[in-house]
Amino acid sequence: MILALHGNLGSGADWERLGIPTLQALDLWEFSHLSFAEFATSISGRDDRPVLAGYSLGGRLALHAMASFPERWRAAVILSAHPGLPCVEDRIARKISDGVWAKRALGMPWSDFLGEWNRQPVLAESSTGTDQNTLETHRESIARAFENWSLGAQENLRPKLQKFDQPVLWISGAEDKKFTSIAEELAAVFPDFRHEVIPDCGHRVLRPPVGDIISSFVSGLS
């Protein structure tokens, strides 16, 4: 079984459209009151040792669970995610930036907020699988996520992730140079690591062809 975590301003439907029958997608907006450590604990008490998968924000949450409870997961699939900022000054700047996004999520007209979010360079010229208009009812949870799960609140997980010796499939889009470079760097962190680069794709890699790559990876696990 695959336990899957969606990205920011996303939903479990982003994963479900990949057509992977053994996948269970969580709704992260039910958990955004938790810290990284609390969330990792909340999903790691299972007995079935699922494959843990996460995209973007969900990937960062997955990395925390992998670093904290490496023995609880059969393998991991990470898409377009960041393992943490090494520089303290960068983390402080990111927390300030995400605090601004939290205020926008709460106070702006929802359509204006979505427009600003989707015009960011990393997301430009790509579409999301979620009808983001339906997320307006989750304003408060989304605002909490910007603060509690900010990249600025996340530790640099690279040293701890070296303990994770299960297979890791890392996926990035060929047009997403930043996150493809991060993935290439992490080949030196994980002992069992495979990196797939999706052609003609940016940051938003949750597209149906990726479902076949993930399914093949999971079916090949011993």
Structural write-up:
With 222 residues, the chain is of the alpha/beta class. It folds into two domains: 2-85 and 155-219, Alpha/Beta hydrolase fold, catalytic domain (Rossmann fold), CATH 3.40.50.1820; 88-148, no CATH class. Helices cover 40% and strands 14% of the residues. It contains nine helices and six strands; from the N terminus they run βαβαβαβααααβαβα. A six-stranded parallel sheet has the order 2-1-3-4-5-6, with helices on both faces. The longest helix is centred in the middle third of the chain and has 20 residues, at 88-107. The radius of gyration is 16 Å and the shape is globular. The model has no long low-confidence stretch (mean pLDDT 94).
Query: Mind telling me the CATH superfamily name of the largest domain?
Result: Alpha/Beta hydrolase fold, catalytic domain
> What's the arrangement of strands in the largest beta sheet?
2-1-3-4-5-6
In the CATH scheme, the class of the largest domain would be Alpha Beta
Helix tally equals 9
State the share of residues found in helices, binned by percent.
25-40%
* Beta content: 5-15%
Give a count of the beta strands, DSSP E runs of length 2 or more.
6
Shape: globular
